[in-house]
Design brief:
2-enoyl-CoA Hydratase, Chain A, domain 1, 9 strands, about 10% strand
Amino acid sequence: MQVEYSVCFERHPLPAGGYLAQLTLNAPSRLNALTPEMVTLLHKLLLEIRDDSEAVAVFLDGAGKRAFCAGADTLRIRESALANPGGVAIEADAFFAYEYAAAHLIHRFPKPVICWGGGIVMGAGLGLMVGGSHRIVTNSSTLAMPEISIGLFPNVGASWFLGQMPGRTGLFTALTSAYLSPADALYAGLADYCLRDKSKEEVLRKIINIDWCDDPEWNAEHLTECLTDIEVEQGVTLQQTSLKDHRAWIDDVCALPTPTAVEAAICGYKGHCEWLQLAAQGLTRGASSTAKLIFRQLDTGRGLSLADVFKMELVLSSNRVRDPEFAEGVRARLIDRDRDPHWCYKNIGQVPDSEIDALFTSPWQTNPLDELLVL
């Protein structure tokens, strides 16, 4: 019997020898939300597979039918922060360090990493998926970076990958918690293929039967051909692409000269598009301090290497989880579930620059990722 709140590791033997490694996030009752134990094990298994000459590739998925991964176990993170008021959140810091190390390893993995992003793919789940070499969404996929709703901030490499999205759609996605469809994911460069939700076992079987060899580049090329052929065969019909359809409006409002002006324009949307209405509500109801942080985060991350992005985010995470805004956001959404957080500020204009500056100040002399990111 599988142990829940873990990561399952299965070796699929290949016809010519070696194996395909399947790693499954296994916490289906919690939408595969990541726990400290899960990210530590995921990092460990990825290192083992990387160094095993018999392993040709990784297939990363989530247990159950509802989600690849809905994010992190923010209740555990909150408990860690509240356990030592004013001091270090030991478990939370370790969680973020191993989570980011695992995500960075996926980005830089020397073998193909296929990620099956079916169902809910949000927050940390999206951070893990985007690093894969072959990223699959399905007709059931819903993607988002909803951290503003709990007073955190988009992380797990979001400072990098949101900046790679077309125009200013990454900034808009972070500020509004906007839900992205499979078509949006393809348009935004967050995924590479859209396949039928119920075809995972068939797809996995076809992948196993590729003529794998010892050359990772050759393997990646033939894997691309295999998945492209499957996508053509399945011919999934996608819904409209909201990001693309509203790209001009998004780019215009997010290019306004100040964060305050951007906030006012998005929150003041008066049109009839339900998707944009929901996006406006996401920013209106979210933490203004997070919104201001997002502007600084994405601007700072634009000039950093991927490793330095993760190091910056670890500093931000360590500081932010000890901020009362995060504790209040988690209370309102996940504990009392009244969805009525009492934020410290009503709008971005009220958030002091000094408060954002302090979040970028490292609580350590040596960043924990300095060792974990050595490949």
